Amino acid sequence: MRGTCSFERAGVLARTSSTRSKRNATDSRPRAAAGGVGEPWAGGRRLRLVAAVLILVAQVAGAQVRPAVEAPPAAARVVAANALRIAILPVENLSGVKAPLKTVDQLVAYQVRNGGFRVVADEPLANFMRVHRLRYTGGVSLITARASREEIDADAILVTSLETFREGPLPKVTLHARLVSTGEDPMILWADSVGLAGDDAPGLLGLGLITESLPLLKKAARALVSSLVDASREWPGGGDTVAPNDVGKGRRGGRAGNRSRRWAAHLSTEAGIAGQYAARFRPRTHFRSDVVDFSAPHTVAVIPFLNVSERKYADKILALHFINELQLHVNLKVVEPGMVRERLLTTRAIMAGGPSLAVADLFFHQEFPAVDLILSGEVFDYQDRERVAKVDFSVQVFEKATRQVVWFSRSYNRGDEDVLFFDLGRQRTAHGLITRMVGSAMERMLR
Amino acid sequence: MIDRTRTFRFVAVLMAIAASVSCAGMGNVYVDSNMDFGALQKVVVMPFQNLTQEEDAAARVRDAFMGMLLATEAVYVLPAGEVSRGIARVGIRVPSTPTSEEIKRISGILGAEGVITGVLREYGTVRSGSATASVISLSLQLIEVETGTVVWSAASTKGGVTFVDRLLGGGGEAMNDVTVDAIDDLLDKLF
How far apart are alpha carbons A317 and A431 in whole angstroms? Predict the structure, then answer.
């Protein structure tokens, strides 16, 4: 779709009077460049040639660099403005390096306000966090969910995590975010992630290369909130009221659909929206038990993975990816990971070699949300800072009734696998690689 | 005129050589003929003994083996976390080489009929001239819990620098793929 206007077609566009393609209308630069297009040219051949060249350059250079960010339509903005009051927690840094976290917070908050949501002010939120000694910002516990509804009148909490941050000539940024409802029964309303690299779309003559991290962070924040806005339109009432049980009904059967395609290449929700992953991302080994009907409604708790790799926080990163993938499926309810963490901490559960049945019993208990599947695994390798991304992990699922492993899979891939010509199909970020691997594994499990 | 007797003798000698060569590969497999392998419903895979330079090699290979054994659907393989809990409860000091008494106790706690132990002898990259390749050498034993005796053992070595690698260079197969080959070989020897 982007930047595919040929020289000849550009010339034709210059000659026509009022017809302007929808593609041109959605690109920021072509919109500016095409301001004069559509008027009949009285000039000679040279002027037409110049106009055609300008349009071609604008199409190629502009279309690949910055997909236009449309403001939500006026009707949706009015509806969203009456909607959720969101408390945005400070971003959790899982990158393992120093990162401009305050900048990320500001960018995300700005985009959320722009998306039409009401945001809890900084001061009440800071007071709330100080009073409740809230230091862990990677999840929402039951206590936090209740207190935030009562004390700061938040309808939902936005949890953001920075998976990757790399500066340099080819920066990389990966952000995760999820919206969790507050109150007595916190649930995940939306979750998504975006992974961007500076050389995702280098374009002609490298004009599309992004060499600084700040523009990449802005893009990532914009992409994530755009996904949130799109998802909120599917909620009953357009997002102005949120009854947690109804949000699930708003999703379509199978995977949630009708998402914006602008960020299709980068958002985890779009990576395999048709449910078709390349064969190379399939698990190398898998076991699926017949005793469980995976298409039936289930409640899943994702337990922290065992991290055998050298990358810090690789266990949390894998868990986030699985949460993002599982919550897309209508028949699955994913327990908020903050509540899982709260449960493990209060019971002082130790998982030396991974989750055991004793740990699983903590979540199969009736007092806890009716969990009947527990997902966990091991991360053996996670590399994103090098030129070639590499990921190696295994995942297993325990089931409540049988108390046995009902799914096991082992996946390992490199970003440059089966890439033959001009880097076509290359996964530049570990995010893109994991998204496809996780999606493929879960697709096999749930079909 | 063709000397049929001579030809017959020549072919017979060739067949005898081929038969002896094909039998040679079974030297590293032991199977207890009195063992009823159908009685094994649940097995425990203990942490492997790591004789290599790579710290987490044994964990990787063990995970791959457990998954592939589970995928055969011939036996149920207890998850690693459950095995760790059993080891902690029994108080096994060296999980990779449990004693018969420890095997009986852990199998009682976990409800398993068999315990698999293993030794990872080689894992990593080998070099020959300018060529490099991944290599793995793994041996496994299956211990029946009631008697504490070894009822099956086998070993497999895969990877290494091939003739083509020497000739044309290159890095050989990926380590994970070589590991899968070795485990496939071992499972073939088990079933």
Answer: 9
Q: Do A408 and B71 touch (CB under 8 A)?
A: yes
User: Does the CA dihedral A215-A216-A218-A223 come out positive or negative?
Assistant: positive
CB A308 within 8 A of CB A410: no
Contact flag B79-A286 (C-beta cutoff 8 Å): no
Is A402 touching B (CB cutoff 8 A)?
no
Contact call for residues A179 and A80 (beta carbons, < 8 A): no
- Check pLDDT > 80 for residue A269: no
CB atoms within 10 A of CB B173: 19
Which of A351, A356, A408 is nearest residue B67 as measured by Cβ atoms? A408
The pLDDT value recorded for residue A330 is 86
Cβ–Cβ contact A411 with B under 8 A: no
Is pLDDT at A412 greater than 80 in this prediction? yes
What domains are defined for chain A? Answer: 7-65 (no CATH), 74-250 (3.40.50.10610), 271-446 (3.40.50.10610)
DSSP assignment letter at A255 = B
pLDDT band at B170 (very low <50, low <70, confident <90, very high): low
> Measuring CA to CA, how many Å separate B78 from each of A420, B91, B114, B116?
41, 18, 11, 11
Inter-chain residue contact A404 with B84, CB threshold 8 Å:
no
Q: Which two tokens stand for residue A147?
A: 């207190």
Is B176 within 8 Å of A284 when comparing Cβ atoms?
yes
pLDDT-derived band at A73, boundaries 50, 70, 90 = very low
Interface test with A, best of B50, B54, B85 (most A CBs within 10 A): B85
State the ipTM, two decimals.
0.81
For CA atoms B73, B79, B80, B85, the dihedral sign is: negative
Residue of A nearest to B61 (CA): A380
d(CA A175, CA B25): 53
- How many Å apart are CA A427 and CA A239, to the nearest integer? 34
Chain B residues whose beta carbon lies within 8 Å of the beta carbon of residue A392: 60, 176
> Above 90 in pLDDT, residue A377?
yes
Residues of B in contact with A416 (CB under 8 A): none
Contact A319, A306 (CB under 8 A): no
Q: Which residues of A touch B79 (CB under 8 A)?
A: 354-356, 396, 398, 405
Going through A236-335 in order, the beta strands assigned E by DSSP cover 285-288, 298-302, 306-307, 332-334
Domain residue ranges of chain B, discontinuous segments joined by +: 28-190
CB burial class (10 A; 0-12, 13-18, 19+) of residue B39? exposed
Contact across the interface for B81 and A354, Cβ inside 8 Å? yes
Task: Name every residue in B having a CB less than 8 A away from some CB of A.
Answer: 56, 59-60, 63-64, 66-68, 70-71, 73, 76-77, 79-85, 88, 176, 180
B8-34 pLDDT per residue, tens = 887 777 776 655 555 444 568 999 988
B28-190 CATH: 3.40.50.10610
